[in-house]
Amino acid sequence: MEDLKRLFRKGVSCLSCYVWQWQPGASLQALRRTKAESSRRNPGNRLWRFPAALLSDRCRELTEKYLDGLSYVNYNVLVTDWDSNNVEDILMPCMFEDLYRMDTGEILRPENGEIPAEVYERIMTTYFPVTKERIREICGYRADTDSYPYEMIFSSPYPPFGEVVGDKENPDGTLTLFVDGVWPDYNSDCAFTNIITVQPFDDGTFRYLSNSIEKKELDIPNVYDMK
Q1: What's the CA gap between 136 and 117, in Å, rounded?
Q2: Where are the alpha helices (DSSP H) in 80-218?
Q3: Residue 160 pLDDT more than 70?
Q4: Residue 155 DSSP one-character state
Q5: The pLDDT of residue 157
Q6: What whole-number distance in Å separates Cα of residue 12 and Cα of residue 185?
Q7: Distance CA 166, CA 3 (A)
Q8: Which of 111, 115, 174, 199 could pair covalently with 207 via S-S, beta carbons 3.0-4.6 A apart?
Q9: pLDDT, mean of residues 89-111
């Protein structure tokens, strides 16, 4: 049942009208589309297979902490190879809304389409190895209002999501996460894989230090094609 809840939380419940086939001790085994839309991508309403192994409690906790809320289709954080040397390549204003929700647990409510610079810069410099000065150069800082413009994210239907399937604690205190990109809409539980390095902090926050991604069963999403 926990796996069902996990899938619902990830948005798979939006793909309504399934026949669930459940086996005790296993994760979701199969689902069948019954809507007309499914016939286009799933001729004959064939069963879609999912892995039988459950995520460990640790992998589930790491997934919830480091990946829940991040998108594969709205910005480049998870779909680009990057580290501290080219982190500026992934800085996109639209990513702030998800980071704000991860940091505060609240929905971002900008005033007059603007976000106070103090809030914006604190969150961005916490979660990425970048300076306030570079943030101001890249993300549209407005000196007259000491703020940043709000850029809305438009949801993509049935996007992929990441699940931590393993991790490694490094001598320098960083943590390496091994991630499978799951894309139920395309019947794939390993569309691509990520290796993500994070730096946990004593106050419970953390910083993404690098990401690499490798194509497996499906092409890596291009955020510009998904918009």
Answers
A1: 9
A2: 96-104, 117-127, 132-138
A3: yes
A4: P
A5: 73
A6: 8
A7: 17
A8: 199
A9: 93
Q: How many helices (H) and strands (E) does the chain have?
A: 7, 9
20: tokens are: 């669930």
Q: How much of the chain, in percent, has pLDDT values that exceed 70?
A: 75
In this prediction, residue 9 carries a pLDDT of: 45
CB-CB contact of 78 with 194 (8 Å):
yes
Q: Which two tokens stand for residue 92?
A: 């996109």
Between 154 and 42, the higher pLDDT residue: 154
Sheet containing 188-200, strands listed edge to edge, beginning at the edge strand earlier in sequence: 161-169, 175-183, 188-200, 206-215
State mean pLDDT over 58-68: 96
Three-state DSSP at 70 gives coil
Sign of the torsion formed by the C-alpha atoms of 175, 82, 213 and 186: positive
* pLDDT greater at residue 135 or residue 152: 135
Q: Which residue, chain included where needed, has tokens 């994210």?
A: 153
Lowest mean pLDDT among 34-48, 102-116, 178-192: 34-48
Q: How far apart are the first and last CA of the chain?
A: 34
CB 203 within 8 A of CB 87: no
